[in-house]
């Protein structure tokens, strides 16, 4: 991130608050004392268009749909098995900063979520995970891949999803989890799994579309389509972009798997996450294969283009050679016919005093001279293969 943008983001923030830690023997405090800034008034962030959905869940079931973040924050403390899930779509900077204050998000992660255009990654800030994922979808009409970006803040009792593109549609993920309360009851990690699963499953139609495009390109290459090189280049860029989205997923899944024991991940959820890791590995391997295939196709296309150019040059050379032969023949006959014309022209001049004019053998001499010159020229050109 550029320095001026970092300064602008930090300048617009209030200091991040930390949750109040109560002594273990004091018992539950009043609900209003759970506010991390009890002496400051809370300015609620109203659910606007950027908030796709927000809900509080207990034991895997939706119990409330608050109207602002402050209400969600007040309902979470001292309620075991309760989790908040807030979905934001292209939120305003002020809205993200407010959420950061409410849920004690690290400023570096918030900066990434505000600026977007991040590579897929997983970072842990205390007890909060920050995950960046790159989703993809295949557009059939345009025959191209559209990439999206989603950021997840996964805390002990909340999940905050920030989308910067239309894909993926997390409403389907939410409906899936709400239809499986046992899975949703596993907490924020279950939401993380479901989002990861949706993103990875979204790669399947993209891979199928790219495979179809590659098959078409192979046909065009051997069909001699002059525009195929441009299409290979454009498809290669899409494959590289998809590779940048899929390869880091393997590291993300490895990091999650490494923390199973340390963070007490449920056994069933571990199996689900390993299944996602298998699908991610398959997708990454297919994409790697596509890149190698396109490189091979590009090499084959260059070879075929070179062969076609050589054939064209050969044909031009043969045509030029044939043309030269014709020119040689025409020039040879022109030279042969020029000799008698020259002699006839000389003796046809109207001069009274010419050496052979009154000579009895003048005519046979002229005819013989013409025949001799023509024969000599013919033999010379024949020897040189001009005739």
Helix and strand run: HEEHEHHEEEEHHHHHHH
**Strand order, sheet with most strands:** 2-1-3-7-6-5-4
Range of strand content: 5-15%
Number of strands: 7
Question: Could you give a short account of the major beta sheet?
Answer: 7 strands, mixed
Computed structural class: alpha+beta
Helix content: 55-70%
User: How many whole angstroms does the radius of gyration measure?
Assistant: 42 Å
Mean pLDDT: 80
Task: List segments where confidence is low: pLDDT < 50 over at least 5 consecutive residues.
Answer: 1-47
* Broad shape: rod-shaped
Count of runs of 4 or more consecutive helical residues = 11
Termini distance? 79 Å
What does this structure look like?
It is built from eleven helices and seven strands. With 387 residues, the chain is α+β, with helices and mostly antiparallel strands. Strands 2-1-3-7-6-5-4 form a seven-stranded mixed sheet, sandwiched between helices. A hairpin with a 4-residue loop joins β5 (128-139) and β6. The radius of gyration is 42 Å and the shape is rod-shaped. Mean pLDDT is 80; it is low at 1-47.
